[in-house]
Structure formats: structure tokens, C-alpha cells
Design brief:
Layout: H1 27-43, H2 59-62, E1 67-68, H3 78-84, E2 92-97, E3 100-101, E4 115-119, H4 120-126, H5 129-132, H6 145-152, E5 158-162, E6 172-178, E7 185-187, E8 190-195, E9 200-209, E10 215-225, E11 230-238, E12 244-253, E13 258-265, E14 270-279, E15 285-294, E16 299-308, E17 314-323, E18 328-337, E19 345-354, E20 360-369, E21 375-383, H7 387-394, H8 400-416, H9 422-438
Parallel strand pairs: 1-7, 2-6, 5-8, 6-9, 7-10, 8-10, 9-11, 10-12, 11-13, 12-14, 13-15, 14-16, 15-17, 16-18, 17-19, 18-20, 19-21
Antiparallel strand pairs: 2-3, 4-5
Helix pairs in contact: 1-6, 7-8, 8-9
């Protein structure tokens, strides 16, 4: 389904000047971009008649008139970056500003043999053949219009290539900072993470905005795990309160590989995240954890699409939401078990706390099971804080805002505890607590 507005109205998201593209246009990449743009034009702009977009209105996003930023970002004052760092977090750091890799602000340190970490655009310029076998192989053009637009405008982002058996000594940290401009801008970073057989790594993504600037981030991440590869992936979305955020994460797992993704959504005025996982080998396991807070007119939307197409694979999906004020959330989770995917193990749950009568959540966990020898379950809850527990804390002299903070953090702790390393976990816990204390009581 599409609106009356043609997709060409969004092609201003793809208007970089020639200098922004790799110096020598790569033929296979140029063809990929063209094909994705054609798919976007055929798909059209989704409407509420589309099941996947029923609760995710696009009018606010489309009305902004976002355009691609043609000028490269200016260097940041050192104090700006220093203020973004998490004390005690030691990492291989990549910094993107408005979707562009900033070598001067990144700090990779010494990388061992078999490890390539850097900006996607730089690798496209120096060694495009290293990317040809991987780029767009997991996501294709993308599951919907916005992923297709990202593919049509592939330019820069994070590239992580680990050869067989490589194990990183510390996390890779991606800081994506958006800096506002007079004209509302869109950034479309493309991230590629490839772990060879037996490789292990931790990846931390942090999406941040400067002040209360208006902008849009439309990111796509492709993750490919080889046999027995292990990836711990932590994503923290803390965009500007006026920002729009779109993420498409596409995961492909080889046999006996392990993926753990922890997704924390706290910022942005409007945010949508699509998590798509496919098994390409038996014995693989994936886990998606999520925590979202929405208030003050925010919309935070998570869509999961996990397909068990092979036997003996396991998946876990656990998302928790806390909503206050006039906050809205959407959880749309789908797990499909194919007819030949015997011995599949899939469990999905979505729990929500509503702290205000004006808060709203639309939750729809789904199981599609076509095999007969499986262990699968799903469930959802929507409730409020228990008055007895709140009374217990208040009776001991704890103010109402602090009492609510304690109870909500207890509710969120199961997810926060999955974050690592400890410095990141403490940072997120403090941010969640700060927002809860500032939230209105009714």
C-alpha cells in the first residue's frame, strides 16, 4: 500500500553531491543502489492499511522535509566528544557525525591480525572487493521503504570484518552523534559486521543527539555470523527529544553461532526499530532483549521477525516497556517455525508498565508454527505498579518519585543486567532512573 505522496518526495534523502560518493564508483555498488531505488519506488510509502504500519503513523516524519546533508561535518571541539564518553568504558571507538566516519575523533588502538574496523566509505574506496561478498547479502534491499532508501544511498557507516578464530580484547564502541542544522537533515549510516567461524566480539552502538535538534537517523545494520561465532551486541538509542529514528537490523547466523542483542530505546520523538533474524545453520541461538521508555508524546516502536527455517535452533525475545505521560509504544513480534524446523525452541514475551492513564501500548506477539516437534511459547502483559508495594515504600518515608523509580528499575533490571561491560550497564541504569524521576506522576 502507498500514500498519494510518491516515493520521489523522499528521494531528497539521496541527494549527496558527487564528492560524497567514493572517488571511483564501484560498478556492483552502483547497480545495488539503482536496484534498491527501483524497489523503493515500487513499494511506495506504507499507510495504516499495511499491517506492519498500522500503529506507526508516518505523517509527522514525512512533514519534516528532511534532506541529505551534502557538506561533510565539521570537526567537533574536543570537549563535545569528552562529554559523550562513558567513564571506565575501554573500547575500540568509532565516531560518526551525521552518518559520516570521523577518523580524527575515533580511537581504534592496535588491532590484531585478521581484524578490520573502520569507516565503510574508506573501505569502499581502498578495497571494495573485501565488501562485495557481504554488503547487502543479509538485508538485500531491505524489508521496507526506509531500509530500501538506505541501500539506495549507501555511503558511510561502520565496517567490522573479523577473520576465522579472531577474538577482540575489548568492545567495539560506535558513537553516532547527530548535530542539527538550519535545514532538517537525514543521515543514513550503513553498518556491516562480519564474524568468521569461531570469531568473538562485543559491539556497543550509541545513538546520540546534540541538544534538542531536529533530524532523522535512518540506519541499517547487516550482521553475519559464521560457524560457532559469538557476538554480544548492545544498542542504546538516546536521540534528541525532537529527532526521528529508524533502524533496520538484519541478522544471519551460521551453525552453532550465538547472538545476544540488547536494545534500549529512551530518546527521540518518534522511533521505529525492525529486528530481522534468519538461521542458516543448525544449532544456532539468538536472543533479543529490549527495554523502552516513552513519555511526553513519544512513540517507540519495535518490530521483530525471527524465522526458524532449520532444525535445532533456539530464539529468545524479551522486551519490557515503561510508559508515562502521553507516551506510546508498539511491540509487534513474529516468530515463524517452518515445517522442517523440528526441535526448534522459541520463547517470546512482552511486559509493559503504564504509569499514566494517558499512556498507550499496542502489543502483538505472534507465533506461526508449521513443525510438530517444537517447544514454543509467547505472552504479553500490560499493568500498573502494585499499590501495595508503592505504599510499603512510602510508609518508610521514601518520596513518591523515588519510590516509583525504585519499583520501575526493579521491573527493568532483568534487561539492564544483560548489558555489558559494567560501565555501560551503570550508565544506562542512571539514565533510566533520571528519566523516571523527571516523569509526571499522573
Amino acid at each position: 500500500m502507498s500514500t498519494d505522496m510518491p516515493v520521489t518526495g523522499l528521494e531528497q534523502w539521496l541527494r549527496p553531491n558527487a564528492a560524497k560518493q567514493p572517488r571511483a564508483e564501484v560498478p556492483w555498488l552502483a547497480e545495488t543502489r539503482r536496484n534498491a531505488l527501483e524497489q523503493a519506488r515500487r513499494a511506495g510509502i506504507p499507510t495504516s492499511k499495511s499491517e506492519a504500519w498500522r500503529y506507526t503513523g508516518l505523517k509527522g516524519l514525512l512533514d519534516q522535509g528532511f534532506v541529505a546533508d551534502e557538506a561533510p561535518p565539521a570537526a567537533l571541539p574536543p570537549q563535545v566528544l569528552d562529554d559523550l564518553l562513558i567513564p571506565g568504558l575501554d573500547s575500540h571507538r568509532i565516531v560518526l557525525v551525521n552518518g559520516r566516519f570521523m577518523a580524527a575523533h575515533s580511537s581504534l588502538g592496535e588491532l590484531s591480525a585478521g581484524v578490520r574496523i573502520g569507516g565503510l566509505r574508506a573501505l569502499l574506496e581502498t578495497d571494495p572487493d573485501a565488501l562485495r561478498a557481504h554488503l547487502t547479502r543479509v538485508a538485500g534491499a531491505g524489508a521496507h521503504l526506509f531500509s530500501q532508501l538506505n541501500t539506495a544511498g549507501i555511503d558511510d557507516g561502520l565496517a567490522v570484518l573479523l577473520e576465522r578464530g579472531t577474538r577482540l580484547d575489548k568492545p567495539i564502541e560506535l558513537i553516532h552523534l547527530s548535530v542539527g542544522a538550519e535545514t532538517p537533515r537525514v543521515a543514513q549510516p550503513r553498518h556491516l559486521v562480519v564474524l568468521g567461524d569461531g570469531a568473538q566480539a562485543t559491539l556497543i552502538e550509541r545513538y546520540l543527539g546534540q541538544g534538542e535538534s531536529l533530524y532523522c537517523t535512518n540506519s541499517v545494520a547487516e550482521i553475519s555470523l559464521g560457524r560457532q561465532a559469538v557476538l554480544s551486541h548492545h544498542r542504546v538509542q538516546l536521540e534528541s527529544p525532537r529527532a526521528f529514528h529508524i533502524t533496520g537490523l538484519y541478522l544471519s547466523q551460521g551453525d552453532q553461532s550465538h547472538y545476544t542483542g540488547v536494545n534500549v530505546g529512551l530518546g527521540a520523538s518518534w522511533a521505529r526499530t525492525d529486528l530481522v533474524a534468519r538461521f542458516r545453520g543448525e544449532g544456532a541461538e539468538c536472543r533479543f532483549e529490549g527495554l523502552y521508555l516513552a513519555g511526553d508524546g513519544q512513540l517507540i516502536d519495535y518490530h521483530l521477525d525471527v524465522e526458524h527455517g532449520l532444525p535445532n535452533c533456539a530464539s529468545r525475545e524479551r522486551f519490557k516497556g515503561i510508559l508515562y505521560g502521553q507516551g506510546r509504544a508498539v511491540f509487534d513480534g513474529r516468530v515463524r517455525v517452518a515445517v522442517d524446523a523440528q526441535q526448534s525452541d522459541a520463547q517470546m514475551v512482552n511486559n509493559n508498565l503504564l504509569l499514566s492513564p494517558k499512556a498507550e501500548v499496542d502489543t502483538k506477539p505472534q507465533l506461526e508454527i508449521y513443525a510438530d516437534d517444537v517447544k514454543c511459547s509467547h505472552g504479553t502483559t500490560v499493568g500498573q505498579l502494585e499499590p501495595e508495594r508503592l505504599f510499603y515504600l512510602r510508609a518508610r518515608g521514601i518520596p513518591a518519585t523515588q519510590a516509583r523509580r525504585i519499583l520501575c528499575l526493579g521491573f527493568a533490571e532483568e534487561v539492564i543486567a544483560q548489558l555489558g561491560p559494567g560501565a555501560l550497564r551503570e550508565h544506562v541504569s542512571d539514565e533510566v532512573g533520571r528519566r523516571l524521576e523527571a516523569a509526571p506522576l499522573d
